[in-house]
């Protein structure tokens, strides 16, 4: 629980910082984008794929648990 609260606190702090200093936010976003276009394209594809596969994996665990019971 403490880890989740810490994660939320950092998120709120970064949001406040981004609202007061837009240049800082642009610099943070620029660091997260790979310079190589192929790596940027791969990163975008993985970003789309990971969310769906994570939910699918969690769903699969629940289905297997129900079958077992």
What does this structure look like?
- By secondary structure, this protein is mainly α.
- It has helices at residues 2-20, 22-31, 37-68.
- α1 (2-20) crosses α2.
- It is flat.
What is the tally of beta strands? 0
Order of helices and strands: HHH
Ends apart, CA distance between termini = 29 Å
Give the radius of gyration. Answer: 18 Å
Approximate strand percentage: under 5%
Main pleated sheet: none
Give the helix proportion (percent range).
over 70%
* Count, helices: 3
- Structural class of the helix and strand makeup? mainly alpha
What shape does the CA trace take? flat
Mean pLDDT, to the nearest integer, reads: 89
Write the topology of this structure:
Layout: H1 2-20, H2 22-31, H3 37-68
Helix pairs in contact: 1-2
Quick description:
With 69 residues, this protein is mostly helical. The chain has helices at residues 2-20, 22-31, 37-68.
Which features characterize this protein?
69 residues, mainly alpha, 3 helices
């Amino acid at each position: 629980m403490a880890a989740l609260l810490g994660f939320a606190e950092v998120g709120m702090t970064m949001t406040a910082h981004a609202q007061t200093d837009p240049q800082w936010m642009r610099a943070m976003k620029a660091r997260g984008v790979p310079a190589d276009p192929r790596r940027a394209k791969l990163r975008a594809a993985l970003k789309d794929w990971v969310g769906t596969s994570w939910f699918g994996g969690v769903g699969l665990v629940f289905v297997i648990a129900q079958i077992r019971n």
